[in-house]
Amino acid sequence: MLKVPTIVLNVKTYAEATGIKAVEIAQLMERISKETGSSMAIAVQASDIYICSQKVDMPVFSEHIDPIKPGSHTGWTLPEAIKSAGAVGTLINHSEHRLQLADIDLCVARAKELNLDHIVCTNNVATSKAAAALCPNFIAVEPPELIGGDISVTTADPDVVSRSVKAVKSVESKVRVLCGAGVKNGKDVAKAIELGADGVLLASGVVKAKNKETVIRDLASGL
Amino acid sequence: MLKVPTIVLNVKTYAEATGIKAVEIAQLMERISKETGSSMAIAVQASDIYICSQKVDMPVFSEHIDPIKPGSHTGWTLPEAIKSAGAVGTLINHSEHRLQLADIDLCVARAKELNLDHIVCTNNVATSKAAAALCPNFIAVEPPELIGGDISVTTADPDVVSRSVKAVKSVESKVRVLCGAGVKNGKDVAKAIELGADGVLLASGVVKAKNKETVIRDLASGL
Amino acid sequence: MLKVPTIVLNVKTYAEATGIKAVEIAQLMERISKETGSSMAIAVQASDIYICSQKVDMPVFSEHIDPIKPGSHTGWTLPEAIKSAGAVGTLINHSEHRLQLADIDLCVARAKELNLDHIVCTNNVATSKAAAALCPNFIAVEPPELIGGDISVTTADPDVVSRSVKAVKSVESKVRVLCGAGVKNGKDVAKAIELGADGVLLASGVVKAKNKETVIRDLASGL
Amino acid sequence: MLKVPTIVLNVKTYAEATGIKAVEIAQLMERISKETGSSMAIAVQASDIYICSQKVDMPVFSEHIDPIKPGSHTGWTLPEAIKSAGAVGTLINHSEHRLQLADIDLCVARAKELNLDHIVCTNNVATSKAAAALCPNFIAVEPPELIGGDISVTTADPDVVSRSVKAVKSVESKVRVLCGAGVKNGKDVAKAIELGADGVLLASGVVKAKNKETVIRDLASGL
User: Fold this and answer.
1) pTM > 0.90: yes or no
2) Active site residues of A
3) What ipTM was estimated for this complex?
4) How far apart are CA A159 and CA D38, in angstroms?
5) Cβ–Cβ pairs < 8 A, chains B and C
6) Using the beta-carbon criterion (under 8 Å), do B101 and C131 form an inter-chain contact?
7) What pLDDT, in 10s, does the model give residues C117-149?
8) Is B94 marked active-site?
9) What residues have CB less than 8 Å from C80, skipping those under 6 apart?
10) How many CB atoms lie within 10 A of CB A209?
11) Can chain B be said to touch chain D, i.e. do they have 3 or more Cβ pairs within 8 angstroms?
């Protein structure tokens, strides 16, 4: 399982992180992760999992899995397929790809069955607590109104982080909690950990940065 | 654009066609396609597009694209991403992955913009005619009740094929029509062409076959 | 079938048009429709169909139907149920409630089977032409970016109206075409008819108006 | 709030319970409920809420609400609208109408805001526990594979009932638990209560019964 505290980067479907550019970001993270001894993972588009996991020696995640088993499911994301392509983990229920409750439960079960790390994304304290009942490896709480914004959740709403950690632990003490939305620098990371989180999930803060290396090094400094 | 008449294989999310097994089927098709001069394409899971297009010199398709542009769309299938991974085309609106009408229109537009071949799947004469109004490269009509079954659409309901061809051509004469559902052998392929289709779209007939080589050779003989 | 030219009001889920307020708007339209001899219809929420059709003698529509038959479909909108409550027609595939292509086809079939008037909403020329292939009573083209706005589609993009009419008629000459988005007054209605439409579909222009009676009378003057 | 123990009937979109037939079933339940002093409620289609709540003096529920506020949501089920039509409660997330986790949370919040009783449906112990974190009035656990079947969940899988009750109470002790799927008679009801449930949610057992009165009386005898 992903060592904590950790920094997980979700590259979404940004042009700046598709194909060879996803590989370049992964290579940069791998280098900084090794130099600094920081735990990091990168979640990439399904079609980029294979090449990324070929080119880097760090945890590559899928951005999504569907609650399915092998069979007749044209165009959906089979957990076995992303694992076979090299993914060691996956996001589940990202705010841009919400799932039904029963399907989150199925996805968590499928991820466990295949030994895939998995991060269930939630939007507030109540849904974080709900997700905890499904016993995933990780929960990442991200208030949707702060995603992609300029102010980190740890500044804009520190309470949602500390209360989510408490709520999750009250249901299942071993579930780890990340936080995200607006995270941009080492201070945000340090604050997240101070609030009880085991790390951060972020996207545009790195992908849209002019100097990605500077940003990733700064993030690592907060661990 | 895919030469016609053609045979398009959709490997879905079958265990028998995930990861290295998708590559093996693609290599088999490539070999038979070259030997026989038959036009063939293979649609694979997004996570298998890169390795398949690295390993074979034949058209690799995606099984799906989402109606999106680069941006914040975690876990969805970006047309640019499947192209960058090596796909030269895509299925759209497969019966196992239906889209809203406005989104099929967007997907066709995105595929054209990126010069991706594209096959819009439909379920009957009326929806085939409707899809024709969106001017895609290809329409593949597949009555859902016959998909995965033992009797080819060309035997069970030849009328749906010939009437779909006629309806599509009445709206846009240059749109090509494939047919699918239950297609298993060269006779089915020959009958499809006789009914006015430009080829077939099939899945389990090959993927679930004990001897895939025999089946693919037989299919090719029907072109 | 709804007489044309016609004015169809969709009250959506506006607070100003829920429950007794939906009835009041329906009564106002009924009165003006009778006085002026104008053809009008009102589409209301499913839970308001019964009381509206009890209280007024004018066509009451549902805002939506689902592509289902009687059975195990908890919470979905059964065509038989809205008819039994008093609806004589329905919207299908509104831009706020998009359906899959195959399901629009099913909804049109179900509406015809039950003798319900039906208006398939579309967003541009291509999807209007596509919808025509399904042979509905009416198509209402509404560019989503203009819905709820201050400028009528007939002013902002008259071309989309005239080209949709032409495209629809090229596929099925008997399908009638309405237009909508930003429609607010009699001039917009008159222009719609001049562009070849058989009437308009509107919502906020009436529902959000301070003086609904004035607006409805003005709209009627454009027929 | 609904008195417990209670029997909640979901009439789905069955032909046998649409329009006037929904009213007849409601009247029958009202009579038996009053005679026997048993707590009962009936969930009907949105278009039948008004007439049912006009005709009977017992709790009428909606089968569904959408996670929306008044506004531009054509064809969706506004909580205010079903309340205005006479509903005093609603089902949320029925297995035939699953919602995303974040939307279940929103629906529960909207129901509380409007003082509507609400029953969140779940499919197993884990999702029941998850739903409990959202603090609804009621949770109804219904294993989907038993819904509509001949064997009651209380016989086929009594464990899922008792474990769900325990799991729910461990998260929020005041949340009440119903169970459903295959429930058909008074023995099933008595067993549900013995297993710790506060009542049952059922559908076909009543709606498809030849003699509905006999079945409802028998169910009431189990309370």
Assistant:
1) yes
2) 94, 142
3) 0.96
4) 45
5) 79
6) yes
7) 999 999 999 999 999 999 999 999 999 888 888
8) yes
9) C70, C114, D15, D18, D19
10) 15
11) no
